[in-house]
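hey so i finally got around to running both of the ones u sent me last week. sorry it took forever, my laptop kept dying halfway thru and i had to restart like 3 times lol. anyway pasting them below in the order u listed, first the sequence line then the structure token line for each. didnt double check formatting much so if smth looks off just lmk and ill redo it

first one:
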Amino acid sequence: MKRSTRICRTTILGLCAALPVSMTLATTSAAADAPVTVTVRVDANAPGRVIPRNFLGLSFEANQLHSPWTDPSKGNVSALLHNLGDGNLRFSANQVDNSAWMPDPAKPAPAWAKGQIITPDDLTRVGDLAKSTGWSIDLGVNLKHFDPASAANQVAAAQQRIGNSLRSIQIGNEPNVYLVSNDPKTGLPRPYTPQAYVSDARAYRQAIHAADPTVPVAGPDTAGGAVGNPQIDSVLQNAVTPWLDAYTAAFGSKGGFLNQHYYPYVNTERLAQRVGSSSGSADLVGGMPTISGLLSRATADKQTTFIRSLVATADRAGMQPRLSETNSIAAEGLPGVTNSFGGALWTVDYLLTAAREGIAGADLHTQIDDCGSYSLICFPDTAAQRTGALQANPNYYGALLVSRLAGGAILPVTVQSGKANVTAFAVRMPDGTVKVAVDDKDRAFHGTVDVEIVGGNGRSASVERLTAAAPEATTGTEFAGATVGADGSFTPRSSEQATATDGHYRLNVGAPSAVLLSTH
């Protein structure tokens, strides 16, 4: 009982829980219930908010700044980012509070850093990467080891070496899971409350703005997530609210970024082990996440609920809501699930839902040295690390599809799918092209998707498919009939043509997959 209580306390502030309630996962519909046709209706006459061109981003641990792969002259990282269009790179996450800024690398690093440092040369290298790709940079500074002066010094160096590509500074990572911290004035431990965080963040902001008053500071980068148990998930969502309210009250500004993290699931076995419990404790939550659970309507619904709450909070404060760290399963993902084709289909639905609901950008967290996690790009072995030869995981291809809609104005879409788990999203691009993404997450649906575009000018369309052998496949994912080359390049190889009949395009869908239809 003591063990369960400890895990539950960690959960409310972190991302796990231990309550004797079974987790319910929605399953795909039975083949007998699946309709023959899914109807998608797009209103091209009512364009809404525009998906920012740099909506898509990648999040990395801060210690990756010290890794050679960030050098654009080595390896294939620049090509992989170019494929995705404009974007953002975030360097922060858990390791930002374990890394020491060392303006003089010749001096000894503090013992707590255990050799994990960030140097001026690291900032130069990532600045070069930003310039070569056109991607912006969000940079985290250490908060847990309280030192506003050191953070201000790092920011000043970043402005010099990253320049206009430096989009924002993030102070610490997930302060709502610190639990306790040392009071800067007394040095004594104190419970870490939203008010304590605001006090610390204000000291950092003052120091940073004294060094450079032009650099934006974003936050609070609080942890948010779920485990797949409805009773627990509602508690976790409510626990974030006081932190966002305290932050917006103290630092809300017109157009500023309101940063929040979110994962719909957590690797409960791994997290239980971290807090000193047996891996079997995961069963108390309801078991480990699955591909079917990840793709379920229940998961989509809870994600949308969380996103809408964040957007509403940001709107009240006049701020831009960002999912500054997000992905499918927290605690570094789950091999066979987060690195599967099912994970790619989840990526399409999740990102486009976030864009539709008003999120200004989403940085998908990537453990670049772990291809079994939720990483979009990763090193499969030590030889690849030495040469900088990154691999594209299945969900990279999902992000590739989503990137094709960036810059488009969101259009109203209705989907009549019966019990089939099929979703759709649409945009009107600046040149008038209407693009429709259809995401079939249902194992039982084999039939026709009838896409009707009301007010569309096109009479024909190209069709690009996101495919793999099965949702469980961890290799063999293709988009537009192509895979990413060893050098990181991507060239579509196949594009079907579809002709409109009375404004309708009819697409055959025979397995879980996604389709991008572009009118012309």
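and the second one:
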Amino acid sequence: MPMVTHIVSAAMIAAVMAGAAPAAAQEARPVAITVDAGRTTGALPPVWRFFGADEPNYATMKDGRKLLLSLGKLRKGDVYFRAHNLLNTGDGTPAFKWGSTNVYTETKGGKPVYDWTVVDRIIDTYLARGVRPYLQIGFMPEAMSTAPSGTPYQHGWRPGFDYNAIISGWAYPPKSYDKWRELVYQWTRHNVERYGRAEVERWYFEVWNEANGAYWEAPPEEFYKLHDYAVDGVRRALPTARVGGPDSAGAGGAFMDGFLHHVTSGTNHATGKTGTPTDFLAFHAKGQPSFVDGHVRMGIATHLKEVDRGFVKVTAIPALATKPVVIGESDPEGCAACPGPENAYRNGTMYSSYTAASFARIWELAARRRVNLEGVLSWSFEFENQPWFAGYRQLATNGVALPVLNVFRLFAQLGTERLAAESDAQVPLDMAMTQGVRGAPDVGTIATRTGDGRIAVLVWHYHDDDVAGPPAAIRLSLRGLKGAAPASATLWRVDGDHANAYAAWKAMGAPQSPNQAQYAQLEAASEMRSEMLSIATGGGVATTTLSLPRQGVALVVLGTR
């Protein structure tokens, strides 16, 4: 897409966001939140530590390396990254919804030629920054593709084009399944030799992406065969590798039913045995924002209903019911690189507050369905060398964090022991699933105890409609504290005035070429800074108050490290 089009898109998004300027001040809504630190209600697995992107080569570029470092710091060695296009043929030059590594070519006589140079550089970059691969085995190398003659191999898709324009020669089955299996075997063996068995055992291996959707130009049974041969190649090189899938579009429908049946009781295409090794299951879930009455309206209900359908489906077969589950893409909508007024939520606090509210409900759904939820992967990274705040679904722009990234930094401070907590303004799960948050705003909470004994309380103020509204006047009460309550607590905020580079950029006139001083100001504006809250005690209860604006997210931490 020409640069001028990107700039117009960014300006349009800024105008839309400006249209949601605060109306006349309204009286704050009183909200009571109560936490019982003496009552544990279960585990809160750190499912937020998974990320991904279509464009694998961005990882090795300047802003990609910087962002990976930030992600790795969230939970060092326990953050995972999934990328499309890791086996594509090409010179490694990234483009929208494209990437390549040139790992596989053939001689004129049809003999395989393996070259791990580019893909090694990508994985090296992950590991050096505390991030591990959620290794997607795909897509089809050009020399192996059965695409009809005349089919282009690399697509020419641009933002604004029809989405199906991404489908080209990479989306077809292999000419030889034996060569496909051998490629996967050789790649896995190389990874074990380069990184060590213990390291590669910690990775996730899955085959392809959304083979029930646009990404696969063959019947489902052909994908099951592709999957079997790939898993056999991985396990032949590393019998203890963690393998799973299929990362279906949505809950997967009949495609997922067929896959689950195949891996449990079908005949394995590669080995002739019954079933296919399956260590985890993966599906995708997306929301559906729209543009109504001059503002963005989010579709959290659509997102949550798809999560629930996926949970029901992957636990329906007893042999798989306790397997770890990863929602391999979980986002407000489906295309990170696609523009449009309905996607104008991405730069500011609409995205960050949606993230807090949606993750909270996904945790709750997993507990309700007794799902062994291991990961919820946000398909959002960065788009290198694009205009500032261009409106793509990403975590940072030109190396500067967006508010949504700071919500993941808040998540990283939560413990894994969940405490009893309730808010009298939290929208019930079933209502959020069926109606979304269209009436009163959702002011909700999650409370945890960290491994070092601190109490961390997350609070969010969310509404589906990106319009102004009064703040929440929150009274936070904590019971069951061990020993004397501290005199103060640490408060972290992500809202219109805190940890928000987008607001700072608009305030400085939305420059498309910030100078060094302006860049430093934007970086400073993106950073989270703590403040102190006074704690009052009496009658065995510790209380504090805070004002949380619409679309705000906050974390209150009691105790010291």
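quick thing i noticed on the 2nd:
The domain at 29-42+416-558 is CATH 2.60.40.1500 (Immunoglobulin-like).
anyway thats it, ttyl
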